[in-house]
Amino acid sequence: MESIVEAMPHVAAYKPALMALAILCVTVYIQSFLTAPFAFVKAEQLPGMPLAGDHTQFSFRVIRTYMNSVENLPAFGLSVLLAVMLQLDAGVVNWLAGIHVAFRMVFWAVYYSGVGKVAGGPRTISYVGGLLSSLVLAGYVIFALF
């Protein structure tokens, strides 16, 4: 059985973007796993219930970080896959995907650590950087479809 890269050789040019997407998927799985020991063991949060507390609680930040990742992954992932399907400039797609993942990793680290203000600090900057890179990629796809 041949791989998608063998069946569709143009896909090889997008390996960095696809790797970025895979890394982001693994990160979301890791975040999901970490919610149990970091949020539920101390009984600060109850599974299946609305989130309790505020940004001063580590358990709150762990779950919020995970949920934010879950909310952002589909749009980014679909944008990457559509860009590959449309055979958009691989350099641009790979660069935007890498930038997005880098910003998401910084966002994760900053949010977990609780560094900075709740709004307007490093967390906001890293979130907006990731959002903008994903929006540019989605816009690139939309532009290509016209």
Description:
With 146 residues, this protein is mainly alpha-helical. The protein has a single domain, classed as Four Helix Bundle (Hemerythrin (Met), subunit A), CATH 1.20.120.550. It is 73% helix and 0% strand. It contains 5 helices and no strands. The longest helix is centred in the middle third of the chain and has 28 residues, at 58-85. The termini are far apart.
What's a quick, concise take on this entry?
The chain has 146 residues and is an all-alpha fold. It is built from 5 helices and no strands.
Radius of gyration: 17 Å
Total individual domains? 1
Going by CATH, the architecture would be: Up-down Bundle
Question: Class, according to the CATH hierarchy?
Answer: Mainly Alpha
What is the CATH superfamily label? Answer: Membrane associated eicosanoid/glutathione metabolism-like domain
Broad shape: elongated
The portion of residues forming beta strands comes to under 5%
Low-confidence stretches: none
Strand count, sense and closure of the main sheet?
A: none
Number of strands: 0
Element string (H = helix, E = strand): HHHHH
* Count of alpha/pi helices: 5
State the end-to-end distance.
Answer: 35 Å
Averaged pLDDT = 87
Helix coverage percent? over 70%
Category by helix and strand content = mainly alpha
Remind me, CATH topology? Four Helix Bundle (Hemerythrin (Met), subunit A)
